[in-house]
Amino acid sequence: MPRNPNNLSTDLHGAGRLTIDAIIGVTHMVESLHGTITGLSRILGPTEQNRTKGITKMVYRNIRTVTEWVGSGVDALLDRPGSMPGKKDAVPSPGREAFLSALNGVLGDHLVATDNPLAVSMQFRRNGKPLNEETLSETIQQSGGKIVVMVHGSCMNDLQWNRQGHDHGAALGRDLGFTPLYIHYNTGLHISENGKKFSDLLERTIVPSGKPITLFMVAHSMGGLVSRSACHYGKTSGHTWMNHLKKLVFLGTPHHGAPLEKCGNWIDKLLEISPYSTPFFRLGKIRSCGITDLRYGNVLEDDWKSCDRFNVSSDQRIPVPLPEGVACYSIAASSGKESKRLKDAFLGDGLVTISSALGRHKKIEFHLLMPQAHQWVGQNMNHMDLLNHPKVYETIKEWLKT
């Protein structure tokens, strides 16, 4: 059940519970390291998961018990009516929203699993505030029939489409008469889970309006994978919103994964080699489902459900083509002033390589086959510059106006 994200009591309640989880988790890690060292384990080789024994075991057990008691007391205090009340209609702080979005990006799956009130729920928002069904319906009815849905990237939120005074959605509204709708979602969940929710939300809100609608999407980074996933599940579910979708623009989307997540996976493996570093391997497992999905660009549930997401493994994805009947476009970026094949292959915009952003793959079944005229590469810009660079916007506008 969605909670009011602007309530101070909710923030403290969620933060308190998350702190308790963190203390207990770190206690487990320190106890494991303590047990490994005192057990005189060999430097290399498989690790044993037994914890400490005797008095040492009792000490760590008591730390966990007291921590859980404290957590229960904080919960009880904050659950009291009138405790630390917040203003329900308060204007959301961009800083707070950015923090919550980053938190959900890294720990969003954990927040949902523990029913933490800081977990973000998928919804359409305007100026950081949720649009209820009535307001959303009015917005659609008052539109000129052209709706552009803006889908943000990992660890971000809808407010962050406005960067350095520019917002692609607002600019498209000004220049092309589009009505922008901004989706907000928990980027820590599996991409496939968000894809299903996104498709369901569009079916519940766009289709029942009864107004002739032409739908466009502009998606940044992970948002492009979520959009592709929504298109796939929309088709398999027989959702009719797909009949309204005309064009989809990807901005720096890691269609075939992001190098940093692949590197993180290998670091996990190296830490696991020695029993002395294995306790710190657990820190790497803080990464959410959404982040580990970025290793290869998973968009389907079948891409991950039979695998341990922290194991080093090859690409297990099922090929998913671009949505049929939808014109798709990709913008990639390179941080260099001019294209250099080796640098672009490894760095690209700093997070996503050019080949991945353009959907290119050495295996034909994974190649997204976007026409050359539907691809554009910006030089001397990074991953975040895709949100506000004038050349990026002019390219998007040119593609969407025809």
Give structural notes.
By secondary structure, this protein is α/β, with parallel strands linked by helices. The chain has helices at residues 8-38, 54-78, 94-113, 133-142, 168-176, 191-205, 222-236, 259-271, 278-284, 289-293, 341-346, 354-357, 390-401, and strands at residues 123-126, 129-130, 146-151, 162-163, 166-167, 179-184, 214-220, 245-251, 327-334, 375-379. The protein has 2 domains: 8-90; 123-257 and 317-401, Alpha/Beta hydrolase fold, catalytic domain (Rossmann fold, 3-Layer(aba) Sandwich), CATH 3.40.50. The protein has an 8-stranded mixed sheet with strand order 2-1-6-3-7-8-9-10, with helices on both faces. A two-stranded antiparallel ribbon has the order 4-5. The model is unreliable at 36-44, 73-87 and 261-283 (pLDDT under 50).
Features:
two-stranded antiparallel sheet, Rossmann fold, eight-stranded mixed beta sheet, 402 residues, 10 strands, alpha/beta
Percent helix, as a range, is: 40-55%
The largest sheet has its strands arranged as: 2-1-6-3-7-8-9-10
**CATH-level-4 superfamily name of the largest domain:** Alpha/Beta hydrolase fold, catalytic domain
Bin the strand percentage: 5-15%
Total E-strand runs: 10
